[in-house]
Each structure stands twice: as C-alpha cells, then as structure tokens.
Specification:
With 102 residues, the chain is mostly helical. It has 4 helices and 2 strands; from the N terminus they run ββαααα. It has a two-stranded antiparallel ribbon with strand order 1-2. Strand 1 and strand 2 form a beta hairpin.
Length: 102
C-alpha cells in the first residue's frame, strides 16, 4: 500500500503489519513483513516507489482472500460453530490453506 502525503517529495511505503495485516489467526505477520519489505526495497532501489502498491497487491492477494474468508466465516454464529469441527474433519484442506499463507 502506498500513501502519499500532501508534499510530492514525501512518499511512505507501508510494510509488515502496517501494510495490511488482517488477523493473528494465521501467523502471517512475519511472512508479510518480509515479502512487503523486499518489494519496497526493490521499488525504491529502482527509483519506482509508485509501483509498490501493485507489488503489494500481488504479494498479499492470497493472504487477504484466505484470511478474509476465514474471518468472514467466524463473524456469523451459524458458520463460526462449524469452523473448528470442519477443520478437524478436513485437516489436509485446512493445513493446505494455512501453509498457503506462509
């Protein structure tokens, strides 16, 4: 995510938790911090900070979709009660989803 202040000389690139951390459920914080920091460095060293938002979106797409879906399921009482039993019965599926975030 890129935030530009009122001055065109001041560009702030957000990395780690500040770049779109959604929830602690998945342990995504360190992986997200490393991935977005690497993208920020690449964008800055090439003199293209304006490309960071696109890089950020690509790096975090899977995390945002999977974590968002899990959080959405837990916000509704009817589906929240099903999450743990489903994870228990479908361990390979839930394990693959968590590993996809790392």
């Amino acid at each position: 995510m890129r935030i530009v202040s009122s001055s065109p000389r001041r560009t702030v690139l957000l990395v780690g938790d500040a770049a779109g951390y959604m929830d602690a459920l998945t342990g995504e914080d360190i992986a997200l911090a490393l991935a977005t920091a690497g993208a920020a460095v690449r964008c800055l060293t090439t003199g293209r900070p304006d490309t960071y938002e696109h890089a950020w979106a690509g790096l975090t797409r899977r995390r945002r979709l999977l974590t968002g879906a899990l959080l959405a399921a837990t916000r509704r009482p009817a589906t929240a009660r099903l999450v743990v039993p489903a994870a228990s019965r479908l361990r390979p599926l839930f394990s693959a989803a968590v590993h996809a975030l790392q």
